[in-house]
Design a protein that fits this description.
By secondary structure, this protein is of the alpha/beta class. The chain has eight helices and 13 strands. Helices cover about 30% and strands about 35% of the residues. α7 crosses α8. It is globular and about 65 Å long. Keywords: Hydrolase.
């Protein structure tokens, strides 16, 4: 792997997509999704360039779907790798992913063959050692489930709002950020939504719940009015939600406020740090409720 100190000229994203298959002896083995690219006559993992204004995690899901017809959710991050293309540097971000649905892929100029192969077959077939290494890393990872904490999107300034603070609305930028969160939450397969009861938090997750016809579990303990003065209560709620995610294996998002986020991070065994508006921390929890990985993701309109 080439280690590059400066920002890459080209950013890309992809996934090691795994699917369990029962064997004849009642065991289970993993299959790996690989593609053949006729323009390069190579075998590779599905990946592609990050579009302008696109979040890499969203790019990874989109590229897998476009190249293979397989819709996935991201499970946990893998190591990135960088390499040179002429005078340019390309950096690829990777995730382990699992299948949500699958449609046949029509051969085209970009990908003419899509195959599910065993791990040994993939390691032999793939044209690039860096990608074979990502497969090895993916199959060695523990099973994890995703819990996401997000700070609410940009809200109207307090000194410009005459109503009750809990009713303070999002700004135009905040509404844009709330829409930009939708594909991010989709990329990780979120299907349960918990939020502070305050309007600015509820409005942040509203576009997502509207798209999927979900309900919002509104928790007053996550509001500034309650949560700042009761960090233990915030921690108790996060403790319960953390165990729920591990038990049900259903990805979940929790939307909160800047002053309450430190107590939320403590409950997730994460160090304190500041959040931009609408910024997420995506936490991968193992079956024994340990934090395996934490990724920080911002929307394109991050401020």
């Amino acid at each position: 792997m080439i280690r590059v100190g400066r920002k890459p000229d080209i950013s890309a994203a992809g996934a090691v997509v795994l699917r369990p298959q029962q064997t004849a002896d009642a065991g289970v083995r993993q299959l790996v999704l690989v593609v053949h690219r006729p323009a390069y006559d190579d075998w590779s993992l599905p990946k592609g360039k990050v579009e302008p204004g696109e979040v890499p995690a969203v790019s990874a899901v989109r590229e897998v779907l476009e190249e293979t017809g397989v819709r996935v959710r991201l499970i946990a991050p893998l190591d990135a790798h960088s390499y040179r293309i002429g005078k340019h540097t390309k950096r690829v971000l990777w995730w382990r992913a699992e299948v949500l649905s699958e449609q046949p892929h029509e051969p085209d100029d970009e990908v003419d063959t899509v195959l599910w192969v065993t791990v040994p077959e993939a390691l032999q077939l793939l044209s690039y050692e860096a990608e074979a290494e990502r497969v090895r890393q993916a199959v060695e990872q523990p099973e994890t489930t995703t819990l996401i904490v997000v700070r609410h999107a940009k809200a109207m300034e307090r000194n410009k709002w005459s109503g009750h603070d809990s009713a303070r609305p999002l700004t135009r930028r905040g509404r844009t950020q709330s829409r930009e969160l939708v594909p991010i939450l989709d990329a990780f397969g979120v299907r349960r939504v918990v939020s502070s009861s305050s309007n600015r938090c509820v409005s942040t997750v509203l576009p997502f719940v509207t798209k999927h016809q979900l309900t919002i579990d509104r928790q007053t303990i996550l509001s500034e009015e309650r949560g700042v003065g009761d960090p233990a209560g915030v921690g108790d709620l996060l403790f319960d939600l953390r165990h729920e995610v591990v038990r049900t294996r259903r990805p979940l998002v929790i939307c909160g406020h800047r002053p309450v986020l430190p107590a939320m991070l403590v409950a997730l065994d994460l160090p304190d740090r500041s959040f931009n508006t609408a910024e997420c921390v995506v936490v991968s929890l193992t079956a024994d409720n340990q934090v395996y990985a934490a990724q920080w993701i911002t929307t394109p309109h991050r401020k």
